[in-house]
Specification:
The chain is an alpha+beta fold and about 500 residues long. The chain is built from 16 helices and 27 strands. α2 packs antiparallel against α10 and α3 packs across α11. The chain is globular and about 90 Å long. The N terminus is likely disordered. The chain binds one RNA strand of 77 nucleotides through α1, β6, β7 and α14.
Length: about 500
Amino acid sequence: MTTDSAIQYDSVMKLALERGFYFPSCEVYGDAQAGFWEYGPSGVGLKNKFLQLWRRELVRRDGMLEIDGSQIMSKSVFEASGHLASFADPIVKCTKCGLTYRADKMISETADVEIPESAELEEFDDAIIKNHIKCQKCNGEFGSTKKFNMMFRVGIGPEGEEAYLRPETCQSIFVDFPRLFKTMRGKLPLGIAQVGKSFRNEISPRQSLLRLREFYQAEIEVFCNPQHLDKMNNFDEIQNTILHIQTGSDPDSMTCKEAVESGVVPNYFVAYYMGLLVEFYEKTGIDVEKSRFRKLGEKEKAFYAKVAFDFEVKTSVGWLELVACNYRSSYDLSSHAKKSKEKFEVMDGEEKVLPHVFEISMGIDRSLYTILEHSMIYDKEHERTVLSLKPYLSPIHVGVLSLVKKDGLREETDQIYQKIRRKYDAFLDHSGAIGRRYRRLDEAGAPLAITIDHQTLEDQTVTIRKRDSMEQERIKISEIDSILSEATSFP
RNA sequence: GCAGUCAUAGUAUAGCCUGGUUAGUAUUCGGGGUUUCCAACCCUGCGACGCGGGUUCGAAUCCCGCUGACUGCACCA
């Protein structure tokens, strides 16, 4: 297959729109807002299978617990988590040209005065007046500093009591931790996972799935005893898995074991989960040779993180952050313990500990985009676009086609389709030229197609055609189930 | 949020400057035919001027506002 490797964002977007992967929300209305997208049937198929793989490779593999928490959470949760105070940027607006600056950055650049972003708003105003700071563009005066909080506030009940849409899914995991540890008979280290939607009022959402205001996260919080970070029983499973880690300007390749021994990754515990993560992404079809763990500097890290690595993948729009790995220490549990006055300590053997948390926070939408971009191929030789998804992730496992619809072939095809449709994602198609139907399936990512022809009626065999190689093989109808089962099963 | 560019069927586009036909083309899609294993061909059908207002006898076309998309800046705990 001769291919053109340079698949761009535009091509993915077009495919997504044409084949029902995703499209703008509320698009029939003129007042639809940016940052909201919907998944169509193909997108949901891919997403569900992606999550199935995530469960297999992370949740089940490591014996984690999965929960499903509320999207709306009380004010106290975000007072404790720090989001009400810190998940906000101080901004100032020029009264003349309307240009908005981030106050702390603008002041440190123009006047060389450092004010932490969490400072009182008056401090920013004072600094602007004292240093006679004017708008860099039009020399206009600034208005007073305001806080822009990225959380969506909602009103509960007739009185509209204050609550928020969660800006990250993990807070439910933290507040549920004491009950889960007790009732599920937890032992450290304990992973708790959750898939769901999070909401952030982004200033400028862009590029469809890449920056949304409402988005899916798959988060894992691993609770651990901070004294035992170098005791990982299963470490040998991933010790030779290759990580690309960037601490300076270029990424270095090393095994998980080497990463710890050289001190690039602080301990076996963190390296173990980085290894699991890479093994997971490799199975999604994303090219992990184009990935890196980028160690974040002090200024880039989230307010709760002690050590942070972003897992990033190279795409046509640059390096894309798919996963944030944060060592959150006991920040969250101690904050919730203090605010709620509940006890969050647990027993680890004979020892009573307040667990530390290592977080693997995955952006699902961005991951799905990257899978599409890395899987999309233009086959020059045959003038076709192929979505070469892993068979177990494909929204359609198999096309079921009649070579022609007359002479009883339609009925025979319908029967075979009926037989397999409950077990596999099968797509029935009778209309048009056979080649056109194959191309359509190629674009939708279906790895296999079964074609029923005149010979089928005589000897109960069908043709099975492979998407990537376009090879065809004659098989018995009775073999279809076992062949599909093997071809589409998870690794 | 700022600046620039832009917005016409599922997709890609013409028409707009210079207001006036049934809004054209390609492809896709549905139905039918023909052929039968890789986007062929023939017939036929469905399908669009982002939203709101203004100017005008008349607006896809001119003007204003909004919304969105793209690019750059800023932002992205």
